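Troubleshooting entry. The earlier prediction with 2-phosphoglycolic acid gave an output that would not parse, so I re-checked the input for stray whitespace and re-submitted. Clean input:
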Amino acid sequence: MNRPRIVAGNWKMNLSFEDAVNLTEQLVESLEDSVPEGVSVVLAPPFPYLQVVNDLTQHCEAISVAAQNCHAAPSGAYTGEVSAPMLSSLGLQAVILGHSERRALFNETNAQLASKVDAAFDAELAVIFCVGETLAERKAGQQNQVVLQQLTEGLGHLQAADWDNLVIAYEPVWAIGTGETASPAQAQEMHGYIRQVIRQLVGAKVAEATPLLYGGSVKASNAAELFAQPDVDGGLVGGASLNAEEFVAIVHAIA
Ligand code: PGA
């Protein structure tokens, strides 16, 4: 199955405006003619930089820009929040939803995330939907159960056609920003399970077609073996996406 392959950089709450522009310019220069065929690169900068990063990457077909979050309502009295229609009015194509930091630090529930996914689709944004277990959950052997619940409660209401605009990122919380990466075998095992869950939710065709990204301490030095796993279709990269050389090497590792 020739699924789309994706390397996404989640910049989180990092970089000054100047640093963000510099990083984008370096990435465009290095990746303009070197993104492997069939690979898409996604950059997810903080909200205030979305427009400039989108402008700077506009001529680069392999690079697109995503937001890191959105609100479930299209507009209204929600001071400090950003809606999905606002993001698509900037010309953006995607939004990351359900990142473990949003779940843990901002108490986002599966039910709220289901509403955010609907809001994103209503605004014609694609969604990179994150799932993953904590260390305690893995130690208790509950990782499949946790991921199953995140998928069914967050995405179980969707129709098969909605999945055309959905990418799943498996990010074990114990591997995020810790330097500890899931082994290629652990990543493959969970990705195989996620594909099985999607099959049960919406059928084999969608399960085969949905890109599944691995996230959690992906680096240039471990990307190739993770991406070589049959059910790993790319990565969601945090820390290493803030360094142009490192991120470019990760993009090239998918070839
Ligand atoms: P990390 O973050 O690569 O710094 O571990 C990944 C993520 O949170 O998306």
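This one parsed fine. The two ends are 16 Å apart (CA to CA).
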